[in-house]
Amino acid sequence: MVDDTDEDDSQLINEYITMNIVKQPLCAHPNRGRQFVEELIHGHPDQCHFLVRMRPKVFLELCDTIEEKYKMRSSHNVTVKESVAMFLYICGHSITQRNAMRMFGHSQETISRKFHEVLDAMEQMAKDMFKPDHASLTQVHPKLRSDKRYWPYFRGFIGAMDGTHVPVVVSGRDQQRYWNRKSVCSMNILAICDMDMLFTYIYVGMPGSAHDAKVLALAMQGDPNFPHQPVGKYYLVDSGYALRRGYLGPYRQTRYHQNQFQNQAPPSNHKEKFNRRHSSLRCVIERTFGVWKGKWRIMQDKARYDIGTTRKLVAATMTLHNFVRKSSIHDPDFDVDWREENDQQPPMDDEDEAVLEEGAGSRQYMEGLRDNIAMDLWNTRG
């Protein structure tokens, strides 16, 4: 004979074990993730572009590259395609991993693990993509040669350079170093791009308090991959950088930004005309930053990851930017003027310039080159 009290106690014990010891997955619907990937591949291309920020064919090319070249493998429950889709969805919409858990039907632990697996693969791809390409430093870009606004005046142009900020999570003593001029904790990213809106060089990790010119100086001195210009070539920079050999900046205390010429009097002298053309050509870096942050919102929204992970995310999303841009598949995001709304850097004082200059001869050389370009533009009257 079985005592009813013993049966009741046994049932209570089993319920306790089920609820508190045998943990149930918070979200265990893996079919959601598989269905998500199927809709990406076989659904409307615009839906794929909205969800993972690229067209289906580009998505499949990316998955194949990560699997074949960077040796990422599918697990029992999650394919490479699903892992990549999770990563792109999180980066493209800046959602939390908890929200991704609901979307893909996997546990948060699985989401986090697969996110970092893809991130590590993208970091390796970034190292390959941003290897120095010395041949590109001597070639004239076809778009430059075919544009009469800039050719032959800016014949030495090989790229536009600027810095941009991304939010970071910092605590403790380091926090002060990362406060930028807008009183936000950020990381200052130096980048160079070409006329195709492709990033050709990135320098990641400097605290937001560092001036753009200081970041450049550290990159030139400390990064063996920095693309130093051949003789006669130069990068276009804004007024936040010192005028030195290989770095062509605008005239200061002179109209420069395009909105200063819109619905206003046309350039009245050679300096204003030079600045207008210089701004027009250099703004390719602002548009490139804009497309990058507009497509990968994780780069502009509130930071959710530590500094080390954020560094990897910057490199990964810039690599994705280039991967999409290099594809033969048209991407409408590059047609939109996402131009980043950066306020103009304040002019550096004489002490800053003295530190950053190679010498008076370097500045005089670039001043002479700038004056020659400005006078040629002014005399053309085009």
Total strands: 5
Read across the widest sheet, the strand sequence of neighbours is 3-2-1-4-5
Biggest beta sheet summary: 5 strands, mixed
Global outline: elongated
Report, as a whole number of angstroms, the end-to-end distance: 107 Å
Which regions contain 5 or more consecutive residues with pLDDT less than 50? 343-357
The class by helix and strand makeup works out as alpha/beta
Please estimate the helix content. Answer: 40-55%
Give the mean pLDDT: 87
Rg calculated over all Cα atoms: 26 Å
Per DSSP, what share of the residues sits in E-state strands of 2 or more residues? 5-15%
Order of helices and strands: HHHHHHHHEEEHEEHHHHH
Task: Please count the helical segments.
Answer: 14
Brief rundown of the structure:
This protein is of the alpha/beta class and 382 residues long.
What does this 3D model show about the protein?
The chain has 382 residues and is α/β, with parallel strands linked by helices. Helix content is 48%, strand content 9%. The chain has 14 helices and five strands. The chain has helices spanning 4-20, 31-42, 45-52, 56-68, 80-93, 97-104, 108-129, 142-145, 212-222, 270-282, 284-295, 307-326, 350-356, 360-380; strands spanning 157-167, 186-193, 199-207, 234-236, 247-248. A five-stranded mixed beta sheet has the order 3-2-1-4-5, sandwiched between helices. The chain is elongated and about 70 Å long. It starts with a helix and ends with a helix. Mean pLDDT is 87; it is low at 343-357.
